[in-house]
Amino acid sequence: xxxxxxxxxxxxxxxxPTRSTSSCAFKxxxxxxxxxxWKLVSCTLYLFVSxxxxxxxxxATADEPDGEVKIEVLFxxxxxxxxSKRGDxxxxxxxxxxxxxxxxxxxSRSDKTGHxxxxxxxxxxxxxxxxxxxxxxxxxxxxxITVPPALAFGVSGKGPVxxxxxxxxxxxxxxxxxxxxxxxAFGKMDLDKDRSxxxxxxxxxxxxxxETDGKPRDDTFYEKIANDILRRNDQDKDGTLSAxxxxxxxxxxx
Length: 254
Prior knowledge:
29% of the residues lie in helices and 19% in strands. It is built from 6 helices and 10 strands, in the order ββαββββαββαβααβα. Strands 3, 4, 5, 6, 7 and 8 form a 6-stranded antiparallel sheet that branches. Strands 1-2 form a two-stranded antiparallel ribbon. The protein has a two-stranded antiparallel ribbon with strand order 9-10. Helix 4 (199-212) packs across helix 5 (219-233). The chain is globular, with a radius of gyration of 28 Å. Residues 1-34, 36-65 and 249-254 have low confidence and may be disordered.
């Protein structure tokens, strides 16, 4: 996007300076008066217009995106389905590096038990840049994702990541399944069809999804995910999720 640039002469619509004519513009306006009064009016108009264009430039700059996520596909299987979308449950290994010097600040393979990390895509469980960068991925796919500071750890940084740092993640996806927050999943989980979900219903759905993918886990794993979903969405704290509480994407079908 081009920004209007104010020079000491005329205004260039593409941001390129043009030849200056004088310190005061609008000489082409028809004059009904002459002398000091016209010079004062002419300069005042110039300053007023300059202020408007300067303000417009500042507003345009503020409206610009805070950088964009860059994605490089390192490997993609021939059979690449299902593909991840917002609300899906993903199982992923990822390594994090600082773009400035290439130093590594995170490795999921060495963190805790070394298991791939689980999260629901697109709901803020990971940094925004990864929510964007891991969209439309499938099991077995690998990507290199470069994330600008505003979509990573921002002006404050976090832990070993300094303020205003661009970060690079190498990501490998192990599974993609319909997440417990999709509308289709809601209907499958609501076993008694009372338009609300208990923790037990959520856990049963998660267990079925992981067993279907050939990656069964222990009960503690499903308990942790179910508790997290309730904690984030059970607004009235009654221990269940109503259809309204669950519908975080505001789909019309509910």
